[in-house]
């Protein structure tokens, strides 16, 4: 199974030891949705071990679509989590970069925030909002 599909399955299983095997042994970098950087695969595994258990019951990361383009993979995902006491589905995309062995060497996360407002132009700059 390719590394990105393994990533999604092992993340869902919270199998951090096996998840570590999908990452390139050197040159790994994960850039999060807030511009935060984790510059080693072990640092990322440590981050997941620390953060994911703090998320409320029902948290999950569900794949919608995974598209390959050479050494770049784009995964469209839904992050189902509690926000202000309400379970929400947040659309997310992760752009993965693969090394020559097909292991993940880079991740850039992008997150939509439904219910927010466009920072430039406010509501007038936005299309119809879902109900």
Structural notes for this entry:
This protein has 131 residues and is α+β, with helices and mostly antiparallel strands. Helices cover 20% and strands 37% of the residues. The protein is built from three helices and six strands; from the N terminus they run ααββαββββ. The chain has helices at residues 3-13, 16-19, 41-51, and strands at residues 29-31, 37-38, 60-69, 72-83, 86-98, 104-111. Strands 2-1-6-5-4-3 form a six-stranded mixed β-sheet. A hairpin with a 5-residue loop joins strand 1 (29-31) and strand 2.
Can you give keywords for this protein?
131 residues; alpha+beta; 6-stranded mixed sheet; 3 helices; 20% helix; globular
Task: Count up the helices.
Answer: 3
Mean pLDDT: 88
Structural class estimated from helices and strands: alpha+beta
Cα-based radius of gyration, to the nearest Å: 16 Å
Beta-strand content estimate: 35-45%
Q: Helical content, roughly?
A: 10-25%
Number of E-state strands:
6
Biggest sheet character: 6 strands, mixed
Separation of the first and last Cα atoms: 37 Å
Order of helices and strands: HHEEHEEEE
Widest beta sheet: strand line-up? 2-1-6-5-4-3
Shape: globular
List segments where confidence is low: pLDDT < 50 over at least 5 consecutive residues: none
């Amino acid at each position: 199974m390719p590394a990105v599909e393994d990533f999604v399955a092992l993340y869902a299983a919270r199998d951090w030891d096996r998840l570590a095997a999908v990452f390139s042994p050197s040159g790994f970098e994960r850039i999060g949705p807030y511009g935060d950087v984790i510059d080693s695969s072990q640092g990322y595994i440590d981050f997941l071990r620390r953060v994911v258990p703090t998320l409320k019951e029902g948290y999950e990361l569900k794949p919608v679509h995974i598209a390959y383009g050479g050494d770049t993979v784009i995964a469209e995902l839904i992050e189902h989590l509690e926000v202000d006491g309400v379970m929400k589905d947040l659309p997310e995309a992760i752009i993965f970069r693969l090394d020559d062995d097909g292991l993940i060497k880079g991740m850039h996360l992008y997150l939509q925030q439904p219910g927010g407002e466009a920072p430039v132009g406010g509501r007038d700059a936005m299309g119809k909002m879902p109900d």
